Amino acid sequence: MYYILVKEFNAIGSVVYGSNDSKEVDMIDDLLNYKLEGMDKQVVLLSNLEMWKEYEPFNIVATVGEFIDRAILN
Hints:
The chain is built from 2 helices and 4 strands. It is an alpha+beta fold. It has one domain. The chain has a 4-stranded mixed sheet with strand order 3-1-2-4, covered by helices on one side. The chain starts with a strand and ends with a helix.
């Protein structure tokens, strides 16, 4: 599983989307890095959520549309 998450620098927690398709995650990464440029947010690609406790709690979303909306709007 491939994960992409967005975290606001000074906030606790992150929004996460998981996919079995690495190309899908790469495309979302490119889009969000463009859309979030200059904002106080970071986009991170992970293969294992358990190793990255500093991004908890993980708010995992089921669809890519919801993930992008929450990443950009929140």
